[in-house]
Design brief:
Layout: E1 2-8, H1 21-41, E2 45-49, H2 60-75, E3 80-83, H3 98-104, E4 109-110, E5 115-116, E6 119-120, E7 134-137, E8 142-147, H4 154-171, H5 174-178, E9 181-186, H6 203-206, E10 215-218, E11 225-227, E12 231-233, E13 251-258, E14 275-281, E15 287-293, H7 300-314, E16 324-330, H8 342-353, E17 357-362, H9 384-397, H10 406-421, H11 426-442
Parallel strand pairs: 1-2, 2-3, 3-4, 8-9, 9-10, 10-12, 15-16, 16-17
Antiparallel strand pairs: 1-13, 5-6, 7-8, 11-12, 13-14
């Protein structure tokens, strides 16, 4: 048997990222491009391993964009088999999900196994009930299983599914004898692929499936990866967060199957697979992420200069591409964060990158305050005024712009506090501050 298929996941249709409408269209275009490639390659089927949509409650245009892609596949005789991800489930407990709607309309075949005590039952998919854990293709020679998002119950479902698959194959029924290739879709990830994502099954927990499954098609984690020639995760076709920009090979898999090739048995549990999986990078909008380190920059103008140098160096590479640009300020500022002119920095990025969207994020650390003179005991009320003056002086001194006159500035702050306590008018306080600022900064 020779066959081919496309494996996608996490398309997140309908995601209007940053509130920018064109980003909504980007996610649809990434999906449509994969559909077009599936048609060009004349694949036998496509599998969607969850999170087709970005949220459970989608709008009409998102549904239209999904149907537009699936309609083209249906017209070319390419069936789509899908499972629900955590973003796809129905909004209400007893409601109908939009993937179920697409299944009712005949655009996809949605695998939804009947669960008993957390274990999926191995029953064939039925059109009338839309229930079933597998569907047979190519005259029963290829079987596609599906296990949708299970959350905390994933490990239990994995164990039960492995046992059920082993038992079914041991029965050696005629239908089982005809199956030459088995594919399983799951919406889950492998533990530690992305450190911050916790609670996923370990690679060891997937191993019991290996004797029964030729290709394990995963979704959920947006980073692409594969293990041992049988576990595959394509990643997100479009960029759902700035972190994903570093994973440039995200997209989808084009898989060719040839069961007529001789298999080389590695051991009792492993064999060389009879497929060739090629990960293809999807077409998507350029996404630029720059970490601007602020350590050692003693005033805002030096920070702006460093950003400008980066923009001059990199901006021309994205001419006419309208990228999404995110600049992350990291490190410890030597001056007050309130002095940063964020709009000025955004305008600088716009001038050099002509981006679709730009965001400046201040992820800097505050300088830790440690009293220089620990002999002043705050429990002694007679020392409070001196302690307060010292604290003002040391805090002001943490901003490099005010350090040379930090004692004068601490006196100004003390006077401002006294004026506020005496309930002087805001106009008088503001005028006093303007005069002191002009005198001290000009000296």
């Amino acid at each position: 048997m020779r066959a081919s298929f496309i494996h996608i996941a996490d398309t997140h249709l309908g995601y209007e990222q940053y509130g920018v409408r064109e980003r909504f269209n980007d996610f649809s275009h990434a999906f449509w491009d994969i559909v077009d490639d599936a048609i060009t390659r004349k694949v036998d089927f496509m599998v969607v391993a969850g999170d087709l949509f970005n949220k459970r409650a989608i709008d009409a245009l998102t549904l239209i964009h999904a149907i537009e892609g699936f309609q083209k596949l249906r017209e070319h005789g390419i069936p789509v088999i899908a499972i629900e991800g955590n973003h796809d489930r129905s909004y209400y407990r007893d409601g109908i999900s939009w993937l179920q709607f697409l299944c009712y309309q005949g655009y996809i075949k949605l695998l939804t196994p009947v669960m008993q005590d957390g274990v999926p039952q191995l029953t064939p998919w039925q059109q009338d009930t839309m229930l079933g854990s597998y569907i047979d293709l190519l005259d029963g020679r290829l079987r596609v299983y599906g296990l949708p998002w299970q959350g905390a119950a994933t490990a239990r479902s994995l164990e039960g599914l492995a046992q059920a698959l082993k038992a079914a194959q041991a029965e050696n029924a005629p239908a089982e004898q005809r199956v030459e290739y088995r594919l399983l879709m799951m919406h889950t990830g492998v533990d530690s692929v992305v450190p911050r994502v916790q609670g996923l099954p370990t690679i060891t927990q997937f191993q019991p499936l290996r004797a029964s499954i030729d290709y394990l098609a995963l979704g959920h984690i947006h980073k692409p990866y594969d293990f041992d020639g049988w576990i595959y995760n394509p990643g997100s076709p479009e960029t759902c967060s700035a972190e994903e920009a570093q994973w440039e090979d995200r997209g989808y898999y084009y898989v060719e199957i040839d069961t007529e090739e001789p298999e080389r048995i590695i051991d009792a549990e492993r064999k060389e697979r009879v497929h060739h999986a090629q990960r293809l990078s999807s077409k998507r909008r350029s996404f630029v992420r720059y970490n601007l380190r602020v350590d050692g920059l003693l005033e805002p103008d030096l920070l702006y200069l460093r950003l400008e140098e980066y923009c001059r160096r990199e901006g021309s590479k994205y001419e006419h591409l309208q990228p999404v640009v995110q600049v992350h300020l990291i490190g410890t500022l030597a001056f007050d964060a309130g002095a940063l002119d964020i709009p000025r920095m955004e305008e600088m990025v716009r001038n050099f990158f002509s981006p679709l969207y730009v965001r400046i994020e201040n992820n800097t650390n505050d300088q830790d305050y440690t009293p220089e003179d620990e002999s002043l005991d705050g429990r002694d009320r007679t020392l409070w005024h001196e302690l307060e003056r010292r604290i003002f002086e040391e805090l002001v001194g943490q901003d490099s712009r005010y350090f040379p006159a930090r004692d004068q500035w601490s006196s100004v702050i003390t006077e401002l506090k006294a004026s506020a306590l005496h309930k002087e008018s805001p106009e008088q306080i503001a005028q006093f501050l303007r005069e002191k600022r002009e005198n001290l900064l000009s000296s």
